[in-house]
Protein: Putative two-component system response regulator
Amino acid sequence: MTAEPLNWGARCFVVIKVLLAEDMHMVRGALVALLNMESDIEVVAQVAAGDQILPTAKSVRPDVAVIDIDLPGKDGLTAAMELRESLPGCHTLILTSLGRPGTVRRALDAKVNGFMLKDAPSDRLANAVRSVAIGRRVIDSELALAAWETDDCPLTTREVEILRVTARGRTVADIAAELFLSPGTVRNYLAAIVTKLNARNRVHAIRIATEAEWL
Structure:
């Protein structure tokens, strides 16, 4: 852990450096304020898009990245996996407004350190940050159990990401631009998704994935 000890009077504190990723301005501001009220936690950076997380983390070297699961540019779980590969010393805590088993299962598969609902009590957020900073897992036990009882998603993380963006009504060109892929590659992914889900078309694939809580 890269946290730096600070002397405060006669005592020594370890300050946990946090990067916060949340696209809603008011929510982000509230979370920053809550975390900065803690003497041992400091939000050293805040971003509003998933594709800003890794470059910002490389710059500020946080101990914990608190990430909203649904971000523009790149979804939170994809960004969390990139952090694990590029900055293994940075632990990840995923926040979401939806505690669906399929969503939790995706978070577990992505090997995040923590998964919390946004409506959890504020003191739990600070304690979760402290726990994941030292490598502990923080995931609601009932949600975790429900997640393991769901069917495995046959789609890769990239395929889920592409299908999620497609579900927002984006065109192939829009998806390609947002995810830095060629239109042909996006079409290939969508064709593979339809085949894997045994769907009639993209719309049917979105419905299947949504009902299975894979999106």
